[in-house]
Design goal:
Blueprint: H1 2-18, H2 29-46, E1 61-64, E2 67-72, E3 79-81, E4 94-96, E5 102-104, E6 119-121, E7 128-129, E8 143-145, E9 150-153, E10 167-169, E11 174-177, E12 199-201, E13 206-207, E14 223-225, E15 232-234, E16 247-249, E17 254-257, E18 277-279, E19 284-285, E20 300-302, E21 311-312, E22 326-328, E23 334-336, E24 350-352, E25 357-358, E26 361-364, E27 374-376, E28 384-387, E29 396-398, H3 403-406, H4 415-418, E30 428-430, E31 448-450, E32 455-457, E33 460-466, H5 477-498, E34 507-514, E35 520-526, H6 536-547, E36 560-567, H7 572-578, E37 584-588, E38 596-600, H8 612-616, H9 621-625, E39 638-639, H10 642-648, E40 657-660, E41 664-670, E42 677-683, H11 691-703, E43 712-718, E44 721-727, H12 734-739, H13 749-768, E45 784-786, E46 792-794, E47 803-804, E48 810-811, H14 823-828, H15 833-849, E49 854-855, E50 858-859, H16 860-876, H17 889-902, H18 913-924, H19 937-943, H20 961-969
Parallel strand pairs: 2-4, 3-5, 4-6, 6-8, 7-9, 8-10, 9-11, 10-12, 11-13, 12-14, 14-16, 15-17, 16-18, 17-19, 18-20, 20-22, 21-23, 22-24, 23-25, 24-27, 26-28, 27-29, 39-43
Antiparallel strand pairs: 1-2, 30-34, 31-32, 33-35, 33-36, 34-35, 37-38, 40-41, 41-42, 42-44, 43-44, 45-46, 47-48, 49-50
Helix pairs in contact: 13-15, 13-18, 15-17, 17-18
Bound molecules: 2-acetamido-2-deoxy-beta-D-glucopyranose (NAG) (2 copies).
Residues 208-209, 232-233 line the site of one 2-acetamido-2-deoxy-beta-D-glucopyranose.
Length: 991
């Protein structure tokens, strides 16, 4: 339901902005005046040129029906003040100016005129002055984020009119005064009159007065973050009514009175998750801690540094022992003994109970909790430490200041637990997840190695603040892995909703550190798939996913706040301004239960197209007119204009021609913005398809991502041109290496094996994992390309869709290349994946013999088979590539047998591509990791200590897992190595 809706929204956006050259030109006159004022202020920073924001597709601006509806200018380097003219954009429903640290001055009152706004983001700028009362007019607002500025004054009660508000974040400002509530404010409005509120983020300000009891009626609230203020009075009983509450954070205030027992009613129940964290430390709370044993989901409790009466250690915590990660009760007036099984709690990482009067003995049980790292008990009255197992590896136990250390105890404990100097928990960690041992370093200009792919580029850096971490030590692969996996899963999910492809190998959890408080900052690096910087669509997608709180992390990483977004390349933004990307709409199903649309424009269009006749030629016209489902659903592929490509290829210069074929010519091109090299395939007259077919094709191609398939970067469909833009393969085709200009020095045997395996995996992916499954139909050595590491990638898949014949019925036309063509297919016209297997067998024979499939009128299949049948390996000896002399004959023979079974006459006798991959893996296995600089999937698997990361299409072939361990144990290069995994070798009978 939500999915369909978001698709619809996406479609309407696509129609509005993807086809920008047919947009009805003029921006509405009122909007135009306002936008001109913004252009004056920010035009040069953003690169807005031209005179019409809608027709000239200004970056970050989206129009609908000639009205400006979206301004999304996150991290754009904006400076100065926010022009008040922005308030005249009366159709605006989305405004986000976050992460522009040069943005100063006050929030203009005029923003209150934008009554259609659903989202208002002004996070992390340098705004000062008060929160305008006029913002109370924005009745449709669901998301309001003003955090991390220098705002002062009080929260105006008028904001209480925001009936739809779900997210309210004013944290890290200089706000003051009591919180407005309906019972006392003159307009009877306040922070308690938001029926849909889920997030109260008010921490780190100078608020005074009470925590209002009125907020207890906000039963949808998940997070109450009010720490680091000067709230006084008691913690209201009514908080127990907040059934959805998960985090209650009130530390570092001046709160008095007891902890209300009513909190015990916030239990897990149906859709309610139960209270996970209670942080009330550093107040002046009194009485004793009530029994909250109904809260069996607690992960983190901090009651430290209050004025409690003497009390025993809360035995009720036992009820949540399977979830508890941290227990902090320093200076809590604890008396008596600790529970005997406390150190066995299965999830417990840290126990901090310093400066109490705990007595008796400390039991260190045999079944110590596996996560336990810190037991801080300094300055108590513990008489002895009883260790059940003297050989156990202990957590860091600190007992200094107890009688057992000072000699007043039953026994003097070992010095290690009595040292007064403890190692404080670390405050900074670098990722311990070694994904790949990349040998290449990025020599040029401060690029950073993506450890997933060993490529160099300038990643986008998202710094996340985990506001209330439940862990005490993040230096632990499991945690890093969980964070990576959560991020990955969420971006895949959002990407699917938004038609943006996110690939796992783009992400690296880089490091983490305490940012001077008790909050952990984590830095996530996002690398481009190709080129130096992320393409504008991916960049925007990632920014939005984080800044709009679309990513819903689960414990232990919530709540998280984006602290910063930056690039390791200072001029990154300038670069993406120059590159004319596509315009895309991103519709994301809301974590807030509300569907928000984020629409982005990243085009800098220099040439305005308005002539009516040009519009008639608009290649997208066919897609536009049609109903739903007609706009292309692209996964990360970009649209290029004809002029872009003309520039990239030096006006289709002959010097740039990489190759030519029946389809047309292939040009080398360099992208203006990123400097990335690409290959542009330009269809020639006669090989072009209809608009629908071309659309199908780019949709299909944009969905296929695999390390052994040449990736589609984008396309151009304009001026009756059809062009596909691919990643560039600097090492040309396999044919070149076997028989052409690259054949000196010849490919060594091991390299040939890896190329065969890579190509087989690529084809296997098309057959088994692509959706829909793809039959290549033209497998041949010149369609197997080699990247800079000589990794094989299959090209030209999907270029042979079913085409309608004269009667409109779909019939396959025989397609393929002589010498590679499956004879069965040729005779029956029945196409199957086994036809690709046949063609691939021919390629294997080419690798073995170095000969073209047809020479001197003879066919390689027939020749090899006849000779092998008659004389075995001796018979084929003279056909084998002379440069392979010295290669182990048994390896050559196994390879030959794999090839021959692929080229069996009938498809039934041929193996599947999947089986071919398995066979080649057996052959390759022991060597793969020996290849210098060869970044194989095996190395990836073997060195990865990452937690399970689903969907790693570019890294891992699905079928590889069972064999890897076996391979690595085999003695290197030895043929005696035997695969012992779960499949039977193919029966290969020489004919
Ligand atoms: C608020 O949203 C509703 C529903 O989308 C819409 O009908 C209404 O016109 C909006 N209000 C304003 C002031 O734009
Ligand atoms: C809370 O602090 C205010 C001053 O900011 C004071 O007027 C008020 O009496 C205090 N309330 C309590 C309950 O201490």
């Amino acid at each position: 339901m939500e999915d369909r809706l978001s698709r619809r929204l996406w479609l309407s956006v696509a129609l509005a902005v993807l086809c920008w050259n047919s947009v009805e030109a003029q921006t509405n006159a009122n909007d135009l005046v306002a936008m001109q004022a913004l252009q004056q202020q920010w035009g040069s920073e953003i690169g807005w040129t031209g005179s019409d924001p809608c027709a000239d597709a200004w970056s970050g601006v989206v129009c609908s029906n000639n009205r400006v509806t979206t301004l999304s200018l996150i991290y754009m380097g904006l400076t100065g003040t926010i022009p008040s003219a922005i308030g005249d954009l009366s159709a605006l429903n989305y405004l986000d100016l976050s992460f522009n640290k040069g943005l100063r001055g006050q929030i203009p009152n005029e923003l209150g005129s934008l009554t259609g706004l659903g989202t208002l983001g002004l996070q992390k700028c340098s705004l000062s002055g008060p929160i305008p009362t006029t913002l109370g007019n924005l009745v449709n607002l669901t998301f309001l984020a003003l955090n991390n500025n220098k705002l002062s004054g009080t929260i105006p009660s008028a904001l209480g009119a925001l009936k739809n508000l779900a997210w309210f974040d004013v944290a890290y400002n200089n706000l003051q005064g009591p919180l407005p509530v309906s019972t006392t404010s003159p307009d009877k409005l306040g922070i308690d009159t938001w029926p849909n509120i889920q997030h109260y983020h008010l921490n780190d300000n100078g608020f005074t007065g009470p925590i209002p009891s009125e907020i207890g009626s906000a039963f949808k609230v998940l997070h109450v973050l009010m720490e680091n203020n000067q709230f006084n009075g008691t913690i209201p009983d009514t908080l127990g009514n907040m059934q959805s509450l998960q985090i209650l954070s009130l530390y570092s205030n001046n709160l008095t009175g007891p902890i209300p027992a009513s909190l015990s009613s916030i239990v897990q129940n149906g859709t309610y998750a139960g209270l996970h964290q209670i942080r009330v430390n550093d107040n002046q709370l009194t009485g004793t801690i009530p029994a909250l044993d109904a809260l069996d989901q607690l992960e983190y409790v901090d009651f430290s540094n209050n004025n409690f009466d003497p009390q025993p250690f809360p035995s009720w915590l036992n009820a949540s022992k399977s979830s508890l990660e941290s227990i902090l009760m320093d200076s809590s007036n604890l008396v008596g003994q600790l529970p005997a099984d406390l150190l066995s709690y299965p999830a417990l990482q840290g126990l901090y109970l310093q400066n109490n009067q705990i007595n008796g003995s400390l039991n260190v049980p045999v079944d110590l909790g596996p996560e336990l790292r810190y037991v801080y008990l300094q300055n108590n009255k513990i008489l002895s430490i009883i260790q059940a197992d003297n050989n156990a590896v202990l957590p860091e136990i600190q007992l200094s200041g107890n009688p057992t250390c000072t000699g007043g105890g039953l026994a003097t404990a070992s010095p290690t637990v009595c040292n007064t100097t403890s190692n404080p928990p670390a405050t900074k960690w670098t990722s311990s997840l070694v994904i790949n041992n990349c040998t290449s370093s990025c020599e040029n200009g401060g690029r950073i190695t993506n450890p997933n792919t060993c490529t160099c580029s300038f990643p986008l850096v998202v710094t996340l603040e985990i506001r209330q971490p439940t862990f005490t030590n993040i230096n632990n692969d499991t945690l890093w892995g969980v964070l990576a996996t959560q991020t990955d899963n969420e971006l895949q999910r959002l990407g699917a909703l938004s038609n943006v492809a996110f690939v796992t190998s783009q992400l690296w959890v880089h490091d983490a550190f305490y940012n001077g408080t008790e909050r952990v900052n984590v830095r996530l690096f996002f690398f481009p798939l190709v080129g130096d910087t992320l393409d504008p669509i991916s960049e925007t997608f990632i920014k939005l996913s984080f800044t709009q709180q679309k990513i819903s992390f689960t414990s232990p990483f919530k709540p998280d706040i984006v602290q910063d977004i930056s690039s390791t390349l200072a001029t990154n933004k300038a670069a993406s301004k120059l590159s004319k990307g596509a315009v895309i709409g991103i519709a994301v199903g809301g974590a807030l239960g509300v569907l928000l649309i984020a629409l982005l424009a990243f085009l800098v269009v220099k040439h305005k197209r308005r002539a009516e006749d040009e519009r008639k030629k608009n290649p997208f016209a066919a897609w536009e007119k049609a109903e739903d489902g007609q706009a292309p659903q692209l996964k990360g592929a970009r649209w290029f204009s004809f002029d872009d490509i003309k520039r990239m290829t030096n006006n289709f210069s002959d010097d740039n021609v990489l190759g030519a074929g029946g389809y047309g010519k292939v040009y080398k091109g360099v992208e203006a913005g990123t400097g990335a090299t690409v290959a542009v395939k330009r269809a020639q007259e006669g090989s072009k398809q209809g608009a629908q077919e071309f659309k199908n094709e780019i949709e299909l191609l944009s969905r296929v991502h695999h390390n052994n398939l040449v990736g589609l970067v984008g396309f151009c469909f304009e001026k009756s041109e059809q062009m596909l833009v691919y990643e560039y393969m600097p090492n040309g085709t396999l044919t070149d290496w076997l028989r052409g200009h690259m054949s000196d020095p010849p490919l060594e045997w091991d390299r040939r094996l890896l190329i065969a395996l890579g190509a087989a995996r690529g084809l296997g992916y098309l057959h088994d994992n692509a959706d829909p499954k793809i039959i290549h139909r033209d497998v041949k050595s010149c369609n197997i390309l080699l990247d800079k590491d000589l990794n094989a990638k299959v090209a030209d898949f999907g270029l042979s869709m079913l085409v309608p014949d004269a009667n409109g019925s779909l019939k396959p036309t025989i397609k393929g290349t002589m010498g590679y063509l499956d004879p069965e297919y040729y005779m029956t016209s029945v196409l199957s994946t086994k036809s690709d297997v046949y063609s691939f067998g021919v390629v294997l024979l080419e690798l073995l013999t170095g000969r073209p499939p047809v020479s001197h009128g003879g066919h390689i299949v027939k020749e090899v088979r006849n000779r092998y049948d008659r004389g075995g390996m001796d018979g084929v000896k003279e056909l084998i590539d002379p440069s392979l002399e010295g290669t182990r004959e048994d390896e050559l023979e196994t390879f030959l047998q794999i090839a021959l079974v692929c080229v069996e006459d009938t498809s039934l006798e041929r193996p599947s591509m999947h089986e071919v991959v398995k066979q080649l893996e057996v052959l390759v296995g022991p060597k793969a990791h020996l290849m210098p600089g060869h970044n194989t999937t095996m190395e990836t698997r073997m060195t990865s200590r990452r937690a399970p990361a689903p969907m790693m299409p570019s890294l891992v072939s699905d079928d590889f897992e069972p064999a890897s361990g076996q391979f690595m144990q085999g003695s290197s290069g030895s043929h005696s190595f035997k695969y012992s995994g779960g499949f039977a070798p193919l029966p290969v009978q020489p004919k």
